[in-house]
Amino acid sequence: MSVTTTAGARLRAAGGGANRWVVLVVLCVSLLFVALDATVLHVAVPAVTEDLRPSGVELLWVVDAYPLICASLLILFGTLGDRVGRRRVLLIGYGLFGAASAVAAFAPTPEVLIGARALLGVGGAMIMPATLSILRDVFPDRRERAMAIGIWTAVAAIGAATGPVLGGFLVEHFWWGSVFLINIPLMALILPVGRWLLPESRGSADGPWDVLGALTAAAGVLGVVLGVKRLGAGDRVLDAGTLGPLLVGAALLAVFVRRQRRREHPLIDMQMFTRAAFSSSVGCIILAMLALVGLELIAVQYLQLVLGLSPLETGLRLLPLTFAAMAAGATGSYTLHRVGPRRMVGWGFVLTAASVLLLTVMGQHDRPWLLTAAFVLLGFGLQTTLFGAYESMLSEAPAHQAGGAAAIGETSYQLGAGMGIALLGSVMNAAYAPAVTALSGVPDRASAAAAHSLGEAYQVADTLGGPAGHALRNTARHSFVHGLHVTLLVSAGLLLVGALAALKLPRMMESAVDKCPRQRLPEVSIPAGREPAEAAGSGRAAH
Length: 543
Known about the structure:
Strand content: under 5%
Largest sheet: none
Structural class: mainly alpha
Helix content: over 70%
Distance between the termini: 7 Å
Radius of gyration: 23 Å
Oligomer: single chain
Number of strands: 0
Shape: globular
């Protein structure tokens, strides 16, 4: 681990242990615009559909390209940051994220927008593991780290809350591309601030960096998710375009695991997965996102296309969910200390499943109080689950493997999110399409187009007009609500499986002293006459 004489000395000069909290502020702002981009597009999906006219598969790619590319590259950039410097990778990620946002804002075709979203995924993959791995090392004391993770996750919830509201406002007053422009001023602010304030840090530099292993992992993750996406688009499992990526991706991941076990200096220490707390935490993160992210996209379409809310109104309706998530993040450290990881994650899953089941009461008529209550429970339960799982995962990882552990956690998050969109999207399509395609009095081509999505069904209905158009619109609405209920039940089942997985987590939170041996900081030249200050107060190592 190393500390730069410039940023490190400047932060130490602030006095005492305040430096690590200043670093946390910068990391949280870094996370903010990544979280914004993850949700800001959701309310703009109908506007993108109307303007660019993407096909059903292209629309899935517009939404999925960012999380899937990001997921596939997290291990690569997380372990690269351990070798060449996490701050360096983070700053490059800022620049790429801003440039890709400008391209996305003015994309003239679905293909350009998909490419820009993919570049955003590359930038996000450079940013996310760096923020989490720096946080892991700056806060070696477990109780302080739990508080820092609570703040970090609360900021993520703020980004999620701000995204739909800000996106809805921009779509109503400008055009859909403006939702990407909000990243540029944030990047312009955080890039110089991060360069000035963030200390550089590295993990273990023993042996050469396994470039081939990193690329194998990236290709493997991408292949698996591509196959799942094709399933979500309605393809059969045995189709070459679906089965091929699944098999190739699984094979590459198996090669990656075998390679890491045999290498003297692996990218990822596979021994971490032998610890029940670590592997269970990763599984809980995947299950939580698998159950809920696809559901969120469907919920946005429900609010706009079934209830007829504007994009801004849709964003405001989602505020209770994200405010509840902020509250769970702010109180997470206290809750974790009082009840322990097992109960915190397990009951968080149960609470989230109950809120999802409550949403099945929703139909074609607006029930704002019921929706608000369900969203509050949903946000609090989900954030409680993710908080406990992330804290347990990071606490089980050695400090010198912080980048790799953070990459695994973020890969789990993004992979679960991408697979959730595909899985729950396929469940939704399977429940929605049959009634639409079987509707009599509508041409086969029109009914086939309407079966792709509710938005397309409305467009086809407007084109047909008359009794046939009216019947298609009503049938599509009823089918969508039916599909939503089926999807909610599947989501609740996945969440209850997550509650069972949480039983492998530790019953109680261990002592605040880290189990990992602390690494000795290299010497930093101090001007004569000054005593060397502690890096992070109370002898804690900062980087």
